[in-house]
TrEMBL record:
This is Uncharacterized protein. The keyword Transmembrane helix applies. The chain crosses the membrane at residues 33-52, 58-79, 100-119, 131-150, 157-175, 181-201. It comes from Amycolatopsis rifamycinica. Keywords: Membrane, Transmembrane, Transmembrane helix. The lineage of its organism: Bacteria, Bacillati, Actinomycetota, Actinomycetes, Pseudonocardiales.
Amino acid sequence: MDDEPLSAEESLNLIAQQNRRTRRELGGGPARMLAAWALAWIVGWGFTYVTTLPGAGVPGWVSGGIVVPLLFLGAVAYTTYTSIRSGRGIRGPSRTVGAMYGYGWALGSIGLMVVDIRITQFQALSTDQVSLLWTGTWLLLTGVMYLAGGMVWQDKLMYGLGAWMIVSAALSVLVGYPANFLVLTVCGGGGFLLGAIVYFVREKTGR
């Protein structure tokens, strides 16, 4: 009969489809947010790597103190705006989970910043080692949060992106300074860009 109740799996699939449709209609979705972060990582860390090359003629503080912070602040602002805008059409548990996930990012970022700053203040690490500490731990946090998001929303692509970021974090430390910035550019930024493309195709095809 047509009035038979939906199974648990069918209900979850229906909710997921409705959420995706709402985000597309409101201009949200992961594709645009990942594209913003891809731009920030590729341009920011790519420029930072270039400044470490012999004869670059650009002081390191220009990238670390101006270019990277501005790009990342822009990505954060755009992500926040897009999340709020897309969340307006979503109610109930999905909205609560999304808010908790966002708070998790904020708490994790603040906690990691305190840890890294405190370790840096001990002055037991060289400048190169401090660079590895900051870039490696932040890339690791990014990977863990994407793993968590993939588990919460049952999104295999998001989970895979998180796993890729964790591998990239380990690789960035293993290759040392200044090649760690190249890993962040190619693996980190490239991972965001690939994820953005796949999500964009999904949005267009309605999957």
